Amino acid sequence: MKSGITAWRSPSNIALVKYWGKKGFQLPGNPSVSMTLTHSYTETTIEYSQKADSEKPSFNFLFHGEKNITFERRTGIFLEIALKELPALKHFHLDIESSNSFPHSAGIASSASSISSLALCLCQINQQVSGIIEDEEIFYRKASRLARMGSGSASRSVYGGWVLWGETPVISNSSNDYAFPISDYANKVFNTYYDAILIVNSGVKQVTSSEGHKLMESNPFREIKFLSGSQNVIELIDAIKNGNEKVFRNIAEYEAMSLHAMFLTSNPYFVLLKPETLQIIDRLNKFRNESGLEFCFTLDAGPNIHLLYSESIRERMIAFIRSDLIFFCEKGMWIDDRIGKGPELIQN
Length: 348
What we know:
Shape: globular
Distance between the termini: 12 Å
Number of helices: 9
Radius of gyration: 20 Å
Largest sheet: 7 strands, mixed
Helix content: 25-40%
CATH architecture of the largest domain: 2-Layer Sandwich
Strand content: 15-25%
Structural class: alpha+beta
CATH class of the largest domain: Alpha Beta
């Protein structure tokens, strides 16, 4: 095919065991486990057309219909990486348009959804222009590997449900090169999980994830974090298999706080939590002690709280959010999200 169009909708994900710190080129210091979301997603559309100059691909990029120099530069860097994996792309001009359903750069892993949707589009175009149609497993594995090269967490967004990225002895097919879906191992209670994303601050983070990963190279607690993360993945997968929400909660909340401890012990240090973040955590702990309900919170690289709970307690959690937590959210803003099925091809 000499021209065409493709579009993918790819969701963000929330990691329970965190990926923070790299070894080699975009390889994780420790494995991570995440839950793919439903309503927090990026839609990317690419119109492609063959061109005479075949040295490198040319492209235009729009975010929500407008120029965005920062995102355009990141897209260009990723396309250079993709060209090495998908050399047929060098013969084409790409018109790329992207949009998010949630605030970007505020700690809701927008790079995971944006890079994974872009990787899926590029892999789809590669099939169309080469005429080589891969089976589904190979296609998604290739897209996960490609997405990883642009954003580590994006490798997990290529799959739905519960996803592992990184080598661990408890999953035989695990790899540092690409993510692997583990929902088939999950107890049914964890396949009903919701994620209430409480937007404490929707502004751009003062330190990007790329900058934070770089600071991790000199962090004195780097290797300890890698060791604890590797062990926590083993224990978390076991909890997901056995439906043990208490162990799941303990690991998730420990990982959230230890992630932010890495920020505080970087040199220079940086603080992403806001006073409202800590007030929400305090309210959550009190409510859990008083109600006896089993739920947990986690944080990404930002101030916003991800409140995770099963469908069986949904009514009480929604009521609690509205009565006690919404006042700490920016303009009362929160996203009612849940575990999702993964990316969707929306135009081909």
